[in-house]
From TrEMBL, chain B:
Assigned protein family: Belongs to the adaptor complexes small subunit family.
Assembly behavior: Adaptor protein complex 3 (AP-3) is a heterotetramer composed of two large adaptins (delta-type subunit AP3D1 and beta-type subunit AP3B1 or AP3B2), a medium adaptin (mu-type subunit AP3M1 or AP3M2) and a small adaptin (sigma-type subunit APS1 or AP3S2). Interacts with AGAP1. AP-3 associates with the BLOC-1 complex.
Main localization (coarse): membrane
Name this polypeptide is given: AP complex subunit sigma
Protein transport keyword on record: yes
CDD domains in the cross-refs: AP3_sigma (cd14834)
GO cellular-component term (any): AP-3 adaptor complex
Keywords: Membrane, Protein transport, Transport
Location of this chain's protein in the cell: Cytoplasmic vesicle membrane
Entry function: Part of the AP-3 complex, an adaptor-related complex which is not clathrin-associated. The complex is associated with the Golgi region as well as more peripheral structures. It facilitates the budding of vesicles from the Golgi membrane and may be directly involved in trafficking to lysosomes. In concert with the BLOC-1 complex, AP-3 is required to target cargos into vesicles assembled at cell bodies for delivery into neurites and nerve terminals.
Pfam families: Clat_adaptor_s
Length: 1209, 151
C-alpha cells in the first residue's frame, strides 16, 4: 500500500496538470479532438489510482474539458471522491467539478448528502463555504429537504462569510423544497437586520426573488425595507429594494405615497436611478414624480451613450404601461430612435410605439414603419417590424383603425417582403379582417384576387414558411366571398394555373376547395344569364385542370381534388342533358360563417354523461400513423372543413343530408354557430341579407392611380379628416353664435381628440362567438411551467406544529415506546414526556402569540403607512363635546344636548334649555344616540353627585388603550373639554380647540355660544387679531380685519356651537389670541349693539391628537434616539393612578401604550407629526412624568401644562 | 437571476463558462457559439444589450445580457469581476484565464452563487481569495515534513 502511494506520487510528477493540458491543446490545433481523446484516456487511468492528489488533478482537467463541451458525467463518482477529500485544495476542485457537471439527473448525487452535511458543519469556514457554493449549483429536491435544517442553522453562524452564503442558498432550497419556506422565513427576516452588510444584502436579495410570487407576503416588511432604502449606500441593495417596492406598491397604494419623497431624491442622484425606479414600476401614482421621471429618461435617451439610450427606452416602456399619456408626448424622440444604427435600440423603440398609437397617428406611424421595412437590411429586424406593424394595427380589436381599406392595402404591401418568416401572420390578419369586418369584404376580395393573379408570390414559394402563406388567405377569401368578385372567371383561371402545384400542400388544399366555391358561383351566374355554353366551358376548364391536383403528393390535396373532379364530371353529364345544376352546386356552400373565439372550443362544456376518454370503437391493434396535416392557419378552418367536404353522392342525397345536418345543428345546443347572444340578433333569420352591412362611404374611391396604395389612403384620410373638422368647426361656429346670442360662452377650445375622428366606414366588427356562459378571460394565464409557482405560499398564516424542517436523525434500533413519539418532531427526541407536553403547550401558546403578533403587525404596518390614525383598533379619540361642566362653569347646553340630561337634571335652567332645545335643534348629531344609551345605563349606576355626560368621554379615552389593565377602582368625576372663554350678561362663550391630522397645521375651535338674556342675539360676528403664528381662516375675499359671521341667531336661553378654523405655523408653544364677539341684542324695547372681548388660548395639548400606538412601535420610537427628553414631578397627589391616566388622556389627548402597576407609557402625536412619548410613574403622593418628543420646546411646554393639570388632582 | 457567466475571446473560444441552470454539454456549447455569433457581429459603438433571440441570451467578453434582472447591475458586476481578476492576477490577460481557469472559477464563486449576487465588495472578495490560497499553500506544505516548523 505504502509502496503504491509512493509510486503514485512519483507518477504524479510526470502527470499533466491543467496547465500542461491547456498548453497541449494549444499546440495541437490541427488535431485537437484526437489529442483530447488521448488526454481523456490518461485521465481515466489517473482516476483509477488511489492517490487523491492524482484524482483531484484529473478532475480538475475534466472540468476544463467540460467547458470545451466534453461530457464528463461518467466521472461523477470520482468527482464525489474528490469532494470528500479532507484537504481544502482537493475539496474545492471536487465541488467545482460537481457544480459544473451535476444536475438533477445525476444519479450518484444522492451519495453526496452526508458528505455535504459533514462539510457544512466543518470547523473550517472555507470547507463550509465551498460546500455551500457547490450545493447552490446542483441542489435537488432531495438534497434541499435533507439539508434545509443544516443550512438554517448556518444562517446564524458566527462568521458573516458563512451567514451570507447560507442566506443566499436558502432561495435555491425554497425553489426545490417549497415546504421549507414557511418555517425558515422568520429567520430570513431576522437577517434583514444583520449587522453585516453582506448578509443584509443577501437577505434582501433572497426576499426580492421570493417576492416575484405572492408579493403581499412581504408587505409587512415594507417599513424595514423603507428604512434600509433610506439608509443603505450599497447600490445593489438599493436596486433590489426599489424592485421589491415596485411589486408592493400595487398592493398598498398608501405605500406609494410614502415612497414619493425618497424615490424623488434617488431620481436626482447622478447615474441612472431614474431608470431603475421606473423600470421597477415602483413609481407611485404621483403625476409630478412620473413627470420628473419621464423628463430624466428623455435626457438619457438623448444621450450619446448607447447603453443609457437603451435603458431609457426600456424604462419608458414600463411607464408607458401605467401612464401612457406622459410618454406619448415624446413620440418624436421615439420615432427618431427608429433610425438608430443599433438594432437593440430600434427594437426597444418599436416596442414603445406599440403603446403610443391613437386613431389620429396610426396611419402616420405605420407609414413611417413601412419606409423602415423597405430600408431594413437584416431579415430579423424586418420581420420584427412586420410583426410590430400587425400588432400595432390589430391591437385591442382593431381599435385604432379608422379605415380598413387602408389596412388591407398595408397588408398587401407587406406581401412584397421576400424571405419573411411571417407570411402566416399576414395571412391570418387578412382572414380575420375579411371575416370580421363585413363592410370590407368587397374591397378585400378585389385585392386578394389581384394577389392570386400576381406572379411574385408563386415565385417565392420555394422558400419554406415564406410569404406564399398569404395565398392561403387570398384563395380562401376569394372563394368564400366569391359573390363580390369582379371577374370570377379570371380568378378561377389564376387559381388553376399549373404553377400552383409548387405551393406547399396545405395551401394547395385550400386552393382546391375554393376553386369549387368559385366554380359554383360562376355556374350560378352563367345559368341565370342563360349562357349554357359558358357554363359548360367553365366545367370543362375544371375537368381539364383538376387532374394536376389529383396527382399531388399531398394526401389532403389529392383526396379533395379527386372528390371534386368526380363531382364536376357528374355535373358535366347533367349539363350535357341541359339540367340546371347551379342551384344545387352552390347549395354546397350555403350558410354564413361566423368567427369563433380561439378558446371557444375549449369552453364548450362537456355534456353530462359524456365520457371523453371512453373509446367509441375499440382501438385497432395496430396503431395507424397519424395523418400529419399541416397546421391550420386559421381556427375557423377546422370547423369549416366538414361542411365543405364534398361527397360523391348524387345531388338529391346531398340535399337531403344537408337538410338533416341543418336540422341536427339547429337541435344541437352545443353547435357553436347557434349560440344566441345579444350581439347576434340577426342569427334568427338565415341568409346573408340580415348582416348589418353598412354601405361603404363612397367619398373614398377604391382606386387612385399613381402612388402606392396605402399612401393614397393616408392622403385621403387627411382630407377626410380635414373635411370632418371643417364641418365640425362650422357646427361649432353656429353653436357659438347661438351661444353668443344667449350671452353665455363656453371656454372649450377646438381640439381634435381621438374621439373626434369618425371612422371612414361604419365598420361592424363582429365579435367572436363563445359558448354560452363562457367568459372570454379565464384562468389559463397561470403557467404550469413557471419555476416560481411553488413559491406561491401564504407566509402570513401562523406556523402549524407539523411545519418543521426535517432533521436528520439516527434511526433508533429499538422501536419507539409510545405511539405519541412518532408524531413528535425529532427536534424533541431527547425530551421526556412531560417536557414534551410542556412544549406542546408552549407551542400552542406560541401560536396564539403569533396570531396576536400577526394582527399587531398588520396594525403596525397600518400605523406606519397612515398619516391618519387607523380606523379599526383605535379607541375613538374624538373628544365628544360634553354637555355638562364641572365646578365653576355653569351648565351649558350645546345643540347636541340630549333628552337624558332631563332625567338627570341638575336645575331648572337645564330643564328649560333641554326642552327648548328639543323643539328647535335643527341638526341632531349622530353620536347623540349612542351617547344617550351609555349615559342612561351609566348614569343610573352612579350616585347623583356625579353628573353624567363627559364621563364616558374621559372613560373612553382612558379605558380603551388599557384594555388589559386593572379595572377602574373609582369612577372619575366627569369633565368637559370645553373651557370658559368669556361671559357677560348677554352671552356665555365656552370653547374647545381640536386638531386634526388630515389638515396639517390646522386646528378647529369649537365655540359654544349661550344666550343668557331675554333678547334675541343676532348678527354675531367673531373677529380675532391674527398673530404671526396663528391666523383665522376667513372666507375668501375678506381682509384680516373683517370678522367672521356666526351662521346662526340665538333666541333667549338657547345655545349653539360655531366652529372656526385656525392655521398655526409653529405648534411648539402655547399662545393666546385676542378677539371680540360683536352682536346685536334685540328685544321688545329695541336693539343694541353689544360686544364681548375674549382671549383664545391655544395650549400645546390642543395640538395633540389621540393616536394609538403599539408597544413595539413605541419601543422602536424610543430606541431611535432622535427624541429629546424632559421630565416633571408633581407632589401631593391623592388621585388613583387609573384616574390620573384618564385625566391625562382626556385633557392632553394621550393614549396609554402599556401599563404596569403604577407605571404607564403613553403616546400622542401632534398635528404636525411630532411624536410625544411619556412615562408616567406614581410614587406615594407624587407623580413623575418623563417625556420624550421630537421637539424639546414642545415637550417642555406640554409638561408644564400637564403639571398644571396634575396639580389640581 | 443570472443564468450563465461566460468569458470567451475574440475568436469565440470559451475561457470560462459557468451555467447556473442545468444544461447538457451540447446545449452549453450551442449557447456559447450562439452568444459569440450574436455578439461578434455587433458594432463597437452600440449599446451593450442584446435581446435574447433563439438562444437564452447574447453577450461578449465585457457584458452579459439577461432577461429578468435589471441589466445595469450586471454591467457593473462584470466591471467588478474584471477588476477583481485584475487584482488577483496582477494585470489580467487572456493567458491567465486560459491557464488558471480553476482560479477564475474560485473568484467567481465568491461573487456569484447559484446565479445570485453574493458579494460586490472587491476588497472582501480579494481577502477571502487570499485566505483560501494561503490555506491551499499550507496544505501543500504539509505534504513535506512539518515537524521542524512546528518546533
Amino acid at each position: 500500500m505504502a509502496l503504491k502511494m509512493v509510486k503514485g506520487s512519483i507518477d504524479r510528477m510526470f502527470d499533466k496538470n491543467l496547465q500542461d493540458l491547456v498548453r497541449g491543446i494549444r499546440n495541437h490545433k490541427e488535431d485537437e479532438a484526437k489529442y483530447i481523446s488521448q488526454c481523456i484516456d490518461e485521465i481515466k487511468q489517473e482516476l483509477k489510482q488511489d492517490n487523491i492528489a492524482v484524482k483531484a488533478n484529473a478532475v480538475c482537467k475534466l472540468t476544463y474539458l467540460q467547458m470545451l463541451g466534453y461530457d464528463i458525467s461518467w466521472a461523477a463518482f470520482n468527482i464525489i471522491e474528490v469532494m470528500s477529500a479532507s484537504k481544502f485544495t482537493f475539496k474545492r476542485i471536487g465541488y467545482l467539478a460537481a457544480s459544473q457537471s451535476f444536475h438533477e439527473g445525476t444519479d450518484v448525487i444522492m451519495l453526496t448528502t452526508n458528505q455535504i452535511r459533514k462539510d457544512l458543519s466543518s470547523p473550517s469556514q472555507y470547507d463550509t463555504g465551498v460546500a455551500l457554493t457547490g450545493l447552490s449549483c446542483f441542489v435537488t429536491p432531495d438534497l434541499a429537504r435533507d439539508l434545509a435544517n443544516d443550512i438554517m442553522t448556518l444562517m446564524s453562524h458566527t462568521k458573516p462569510y458563512i451567514r451570507k452564503k447560507a442566506v443566499l442558498i436558502m432561495y435555491k432550497v425554497f425553489l426545490k423544497y417549497p415546504e421549507s419556506l414557511r418555517p425558515a422565513f422568520p429567520r430570513l427576516k431576522e437577517k434583514l437586520e444583520d449587522p453585516d452588510p453582506g448578509v443584509q444584502s443577501a437577505a434582501v436579495n433572497v426576499i426580492c426573488e421570493l417576492a416575484r410570487r405572492n408579493p403581499k407576503n412581504y408587505l409587512s416588511l415594507a417599513p424595514l425595507f423603507f428604512k434600509l432604502m433610506t439608509s443603505s449606500t450599497n447600490n445593489w441593495v438599493l436596486i433590489k429594494i426599489i424592485k421589491l417596492f415596485g411589486a408592493l406598491t400595487p398592493l398598498e397604494p398608501r405605500l406609494g405615497k410614502k415612497l414619493i419623497e425618497p424615490l424623488t431624491n434617488l431620481i436626482h442622484r447622478p447615474g441612472v436611478f431614474a431608470v431603475l425606479i421606473s423600470l421597477s414600476s415602483g413609481m407611485p401614482n404621483h403625476s409630478a414624480s412620473i413627470q420628473l421621471c419621464v423628463q430624466k429618461l428623455r435626457i438619457l435617451i438623448e444621450d450619446s451613450d448607447q447603453n443609457l439610450k437603451y435603458l431609457g427606452l426600456l424604462a419608458m416602456s414600463k411607464i408607458l404601461k401605467t401612464h401612457p399619456k406622459s410618454v406619448q408626448s415624446h413620440k418624436d424622440l421615439i420615432l427618431q430612435c427608429l433610425d438608430d444604427k443599433d438594432e437593440s435600440i430600434r427594437l426597444r423603440a418599436l416596442d414603445l410605439l406599440y403603446g403610443m398609437v391613437s386613431k389620429k397617428n396610426l396611419m402616420e406611424i405605420v407609414k413611417k414603419l413601412m419606409t423602415h421595412v423597405d430600408k431594413a437590411e437584416g431579415t430579423t429586424y424586418r420581420d420584427e417590424l412586420l410583426t410590430k406593424i400587425i400588432d400595432i394595427c390589430s391591437q385591442s380589436n382593431y381599435q385604432y383603425i379608422t379605415n380598413f381599406e387602408w389596412y388591407i392595402s398595408i397588408l398587401v404591401e407587406l406581401t412584397r417582403l421576400e424571405g419573411t418568416r411571417h407570411g402566416h401572420l399576414i395571412a391570418a390578419q387578412m382572414l380575420d379582417v375579411a371575416i370580421r369586418v363585413k363592410a370590407i369584404r368587397k374591397f378585400a376580395v378585389s385585392q386578394m384576387s389581384s394577389l392570386l393573379d400576381s406572379a411574385h408570390l408563386l415565385a417565392s414559394s420555394t422558400q419554406r414558411n415564406g410569404i406564399c402563406e398569404v395565398l392561403y388567405a387570398a384563395a380562401w377569401i376569394c372563394g368564400e366571398f366569391s359573390e363580390h368578385l369582379q371577374e370570377p372567371h379570371h380568378t378561377l383561371e389564376a387559381m388553376l394555373r399549373p404553377k400552383v402545384t409548387t405551393l406547399p400542400g396545405h395551401i394547395q388544399a385550400v386552393y382546391v376547395q375554393n376553386v369549387v366555391k368559385l366554380y359554383a358561383s360562376i355556374l350560378q351566374q352563367k345559368e341565370q344569364a342563360g349562357e349554357a355554353e359558358g357554363a359548360q366551358a367553365v366545367t370543362q376548364l375544371m375537368v381539364d385542370r383538376l387532374p394536376q391536383f389529383v396527382q399531388s403528393a399531398d394526401l389532403e390535396v389529392q383526396e379533395r381534388a379527386s372528390c371534386i373532379l368526380q363531382l364536376v364530371k357528374h355535373i358535366q353529364k347533367l349539363q350535357a342533358k341541359d339540367v340546371p345544376v347551379a342551384e344545387e352546386v352552390s347549395a354546397l356552400f350555403a350558410g354564413e360563417l361566423n368567427p369563433v373565439a380561439p378558446k371557444a372550443q375549449k369552453k364548450v362544456p362537456v355534456p353530462e354523461g359524456l365520457d371523453l376518454d371512453a373509446w367509441i370503437n375499440e382501438p385497432l391493434s395496430d396503431s395507424e400513423s397519424e395523418d400529419e396535416r399541416p397546421r391550420a392557419v386559421f381556427h375557423e378552418e377546422e370547423q369549416r372543413r366538414p361542411k365543405h367536404r364534398p361527397s360523391e353522392a348524387d345531388e338529391e342525397e346531398l340535399a337531403r343530408r344537408r337538410e338533416a345536418r341543418k336540422q341536427e345543428q339547429a337541435n344541437n345546443p352545443f353547435y357553436i354557430k347557434s349560440s344566441p347572444s345579444p350581439q347576434k340578433r340577426y342569427q334568427d333569420t338565415p341568409g346573408v341579407e340580415h348582416i348589418p352591412v353598412v354601405q361603404i362611404d363612397l367619398s373614398v374611391p377604391l382606386k387612385v392611380p399613381g402612388l402606392p396604395m396605402s399612401d393614397q389612403y393616408v392622403k385621403l384620410e387627411e382630407e377626410r379628416r380635414h373635411q370632418q373638422k371643417l364641418e365640425k368647426d362650422k357646427r361649432r361656429k353656429k353653436r357659438k353664435e347661438k351661444e353668443k346670442k344667449g350671452k353665455r360662452r363656453h371656454g372649450s377650445l377646438p381640439t381634435e381628440s381621438d374621439e373626434d375622428i369618425a371612422p371612414a366606414q361604419q365598420v361592424d366588427i363582429v365579435t367572436e362567438e363563445m359558448p354560452e356562459n363562457a367568459l372570454p378571460s379565464d384562468e389559463d394565464d397561470k403557467d404550469p411551467n413557471d419555476p416560481y409557482r411553488a413559491l406561491d405560499i401564504d407566509l402570513d398564516k401562523p406556523l402549524a406544529d407539523s411545519e418543521k424542517l426535517p432533521i436528520q436523525k439516527h434511526r433508533n434500533a429499538e422501536t419507539s415506546k409510545s405511539p405519541e413519539k412518532e408524531d413528535v418532531p425529532v427536534a424533541e427526541k431527547k425530551s421526556k414526556k412531560p417536557k414534551k407536553k410542556e412544549k406542546k403547550h408552549k407551542e400552542k401558546g406560541r401560536d396564539k402569540e403569533k396570531k396576536k403578533e400577526k394582527e399587531k403587525k398588520a396594525a403596525d404596518l397600518d400605523f406606519w403607512l397612515s398619516t391618519t390614525p387607523p380606523p379599526a383598533p383605535a379607541p375613538a379619540p374624538a373628544p365628544v363635546p360634553s354637555t355638562e361642566e364641572v365646578g365653576v362653569n355653569a351648565v351649558t347646553a350645546s345643540k347636541d344636548e340630549c333628552e337624558d340630561t332631563k332625567t338627570e337634571a341638575q336645575g331648572e335652567e337645564d330643564d328649560a334649555e333641554g326642552q327648548e332645545q328639543d323643539k328647535k335643534s335643527p341638526k341632531p348629531r349622530k353620536k347623540k344616540h349612542k351617547k344617550e344609551k351609555e349615559e342612561r345605563t351609566k348614569g343610573k349606576k352612579k350616585s347623583k353627585k356625579q353628573p353624567p355626560g363627559s364621563e364616558e368621554a374621559a372613560g373612553e379615552a382612558a379605558q380603551e388603550p388599557v384594555q388589559n389593565g386593572a379595572p377602574e377602582e373609582e369612577p372619575l368625576p366627569p369633565e368637559s373639554s370645553y373651557s370658559l372663554l368669556a361671559e357677560n350678561s348677554y352671552i356665555k362663550m365656552t370653547c374647545d380647540v381640536r386638531g386634526s391630522l388630515q389638515e396639517d397645521s390646522q386646528v378647529t375651535v369649537a365655540i359654544v355660544l349661550e344666550n343668557r338674556s331675554s333678547s334675541v342675539l343676532k348678527g354675531m360676528e367673531l373677529s380675532v387679531l391674527d398673530s404671526l403664528n396663528a391666523r383665522m381662516a376667513r372666507p375668501q375675499g375678506s381682509s384680516v380685519h373683517d370678522g367672521v359671521p356666526v351662521p346662526f341667531q340665538l333666541p333667549p336661553g338657547v345655545s349653539n356651537e360655531a366652529q372656526f378654523v385656525f392655521t398655526i405655523q409653529s405648534i411648539v408653544m402655547a399662545q393666546k389670541l385676542k378677539g371680540t364677539l360683536s352682536f346685536i341684542a334685540k328685544n321688545d324695547e329695541g336693539a343694541t349693539q353689544e360686544k364681548l372681548d375674549f382671549r383664545l388660548h391655544f395650549s400645546c395639548s390642543s395640538y395633540l391628537i389621540t393616536t394609538p400606538c403599539y408597544s413595539d412601535a413605541f419601543a422602536k420610537l424610543l430606541e431611535s434616539g432622535d427624541l429629546s427628553m424632559s421630565s416633571v414631578k408633581v407632589d401631593g397627589i391623592r388621585m388613583s393612578f387609573q384616574n390620573l391616566l384618564a385625566k391625562i388622556c382626556f385633557h392632553h389627548h394621550f393614549s396609554v401604550v402599556e401599563r404596569v402597576d403604577s407605571c404607564a407609557s403613553m403616546y400622542s402625536r401632534s398635528i404636525q407629526g411630532h411624536h410625544v412619548c411619556l412615562l408616567v410613574k406614581k410614587g406615594e403622593n407624587s407623580v413623575s412624568v418623563d417625556g420624550k418628543c421630537s421637539d424639546s420646546t414642545l415637550l417642555s411646554n406640554l409638561l408644564e401644562e400637564m403639571k398644571a393639570t396634575l396639580a389640581k388632582c | 437571476m443570472i443564468k450563465a457567466i461566460l468569458i470567451f475571446n475574440n475568436h469565440g473560444k470559451p475561457r470560462l463558462s459557468k451555467f447556473y441552470q442545468p444544461n447538457s454539454e451540447d446545449t452549453q456549447q450551442q449557447i456559447i457559439r450562439g452568444t459569440f455569433y450574436l455578439v461578434s457581429k455587433r458594432d463597437e459603438n452600440v449599446c451593450n444589450f442584446l435581446e435574447g433571440r433563439l438562444l437564452i441570451g447574447g453577450s461578449n467578453n465585457k457584458l452579459i445580457y439577461k432577461h429578468y434582472a435589471i441589466e445595469l447591475d450586471i454591467l457593473d458586476l462584470i466591471h467588478v469581476f474584471v477588476e477583481t481578476l485584475d487584482k488577483c492576477f496582477k494585470n489580467v490577460c487572456e493567458l491567465d484565464l486560459i491557464f488558471h481557469v480553476d482560479k477564475v472559477h474560485n473568484i467567481l464563486a465568491e461573487m456569484v452563487m447559484g446565479g445570485m449576487l453574493l458579494e460586490t465588495n472587491m476588497n472582501e472578495i480579494v481577502t477571502q481569495i487570499d485566505t483560501e490560497n494561503k490555506l491551499e499553500k499550507s496544505e501543500a506544505e504539509s505534504l513535506q515534513p512539518r515537524r521542524q516548523r512546528l518546533q
